[in-house]
Every structure is written in C-alpha cells, then in structure tokens.
Amino acid sequence: MKIKFYGYNAFLIESGDKLLAIDPGALFFYWFRFTTLLPKSKWQDITHIFITHGDPDHYWHADRVAKISNAPVICNKTMLRNVNGKVLALGPRAKGVAFTTEFKKIRTLSFDETIEIDGMTVTGVKVTHGELVLRIGPFTTIVKPGLEERIGWGSIGFDINVNGKRILNLGDTLLHEQEWKKFVEPDVLMIPIGGKTARNTMDEEEAIQAVKAIKPKLVIPCHYNCPGLFSKSLNPADEEKFKQGVGALGVQCSIMRAGDTIDICGE
C-alpha cells in the first residue's frame, strides 16, 4: 500500500487495483483561484472518492473527479437531498447550502454504519466540525456550523478496510475521545492537528488524546499549516511537538509534506 499526501486532508491511497482519493478539494491562496489539490493527471485513475464534508478545500472538485474517473463517491447521507424528485448532492461550487449536483455513482452512510463496496468495508465515524476563526489584518470573523451555514456540512470520518489494512481518516473534527475507542488499532490514522488558532479542528494536544484512545500503528497529522485566503498558514501547528507526544505513547508518527509518499508494508 502506498499513501501520498497533497496537503490539507487530500490523500491518494494505492492498494492492489484500487486508487482511493480522500477529499479532492482545492487551494485558495493569494492569486490562486481554487486550484486542485489532487493533480489532474491522477483523476482518471481514481477508483473511489471519499468526501469527509462539503468545505471547498475538501470537496471543490469532487464532481469533476467523479466524471473523469467514473468512480463512486462515498459520503455522509446528509450530503444528499431529494429536490423535485431527483436525488442531488450539495453543489461543490454552489453558494450556501444548495443541492444542485447529480453524481452518477454515489454511496452514503451515517455514523457507525458499515457498507461494503468493491471488496472494501467502510464504516462512518462520528466527527464534529468546529467553528472557524478567520483573522484578516485587524479583523476577526467567526463562522459556526449550522442549518444555514455551508461550513462543515456533511461531516463524517471513515474507517476504511481495504486488502486487510485499516485506514482511519477523521476529516476536520473536534475531539470525540470516547466515541473513537470503538475504532481502536487501525493501521493508519490520519488526524487534523491545526485547531489551536482556527478552532475548526483539534489542536496538537487534543489530537494526542485521540491517538491515546485509538492506539493506531501509524499516525499521519494533517490539516495544519495550510495556506488560504491571504495567510500562509490559517491553522498553524507544531508538528514536531505532536510527533514527540505521539512517540511518548509508543506510536509511530510520519510527518508528510505535500507530495510525500510512504509505503505501508505487510499487505
């Protein structure tokens, strides 16, 4: 198994005949206008698309990747709604909470629900997207998830069992220490650590608590030090401090930069 990281929560996982994409979102930073995180050269080879929620950095290109790859999309049931007799998904580039997009292939699940798809089992994991604190110069704006807010819409984590390996991806979430104890000992845990300033996810200390509860074999911290808007890091974190804390628990931690690949042996 090979795991390649593209920043934020964007990953490609290659295992056997499968190429799993997690959160094919976009980057919006200075003069870049929502450029893709996952390279377009990889889109056609993707076999399955996992969406943790509807924020642009996680979801912006989902329909485009699905169209080119013909891959099924796996997401929370709340990402879909019946509109005039048609089942439509939250529009990746629609303004606000608008259900405008029809996917050719889509599988949905809820928290603690397990589905089987193409030889994999996938279980929905309880997560909660936190409020987002944005600071631009002297101004501070706080956006809170809610019925009328796009932020964090459809949030869910995934416990993916593929070819005998378990990958646990938590998307953007606050700490759910007790609920996550049922997902113990995955081979890989992908966990956000950049919530100290932005507050939309766990910070380093909270993520270490989660690692202690989940007891993974390998941890990959993500969704921190991400560029966005006019900041080089909307959600700063000290990844080395996190790695030391994880190491003190006897758990391996891999710090990945955008473009890095790691091999998971023993498949």
Written account of the structure:
The longest helix has 11 residues, at 204-214. Helix 5 packs parallel to helix 6 (239-248). This protein is of the alpha/beta class and 267 residues long. The chain has helices spanning 40-43, 56-59, 62-69, 195-198, 204-214, 239-248; strands at residues 2-5, 11-15, 18-22, 26-29, 32-36, 48-50, 73-76, 80-83, 86-90, 99-101, 106-109, 114-117, 120-125, 132-136, 139-143, 157-162, 165-169, 188-192, 218-222, 252-253, 261-263. The protein is globular and about 55 Å long. The strands form five sheets. It has a seven-stranded mixed beta sheet, with helices on one face. Strands 12-13-16-17-18-19-20 form a seven-stranded mixed beta sheet, with helices on one face. It is built from six helices and 21 strands. The termini are close together. Strand 8 and strand 9 (86-90) form a beta hairpin. It has one domain: Metallo-beta-lactamase, Chain A (4-Layer Sandwich), CATH 3.60.15.10.
Say which CATH homologous superfamily is assigned: Ribonuclease Z/Hydroxyacylglutathione hydrolase-like
Based on Cα principal axes, name the global outline.
Answer: globular
Q: Any idea of the CATH class?
A: Alpha Beta
Helicity level: 10-25%
How many domains?
1
**Largest beta sheet: what is the strand line-up?**
11-7-6-3-2-1-21
Stretches where pLDDT is under 50 for at least 5 consecutive residues are none
- How large is the count of helical segments? 6
Overall pLDDT confidence = 94
CATH architecture grouping: 4-Layer Sandwich
Largest sheet: 7 strands, mixed
**What is the rounded Rg?**
17 Å
Class of secondary structure makeup: alpha/beta
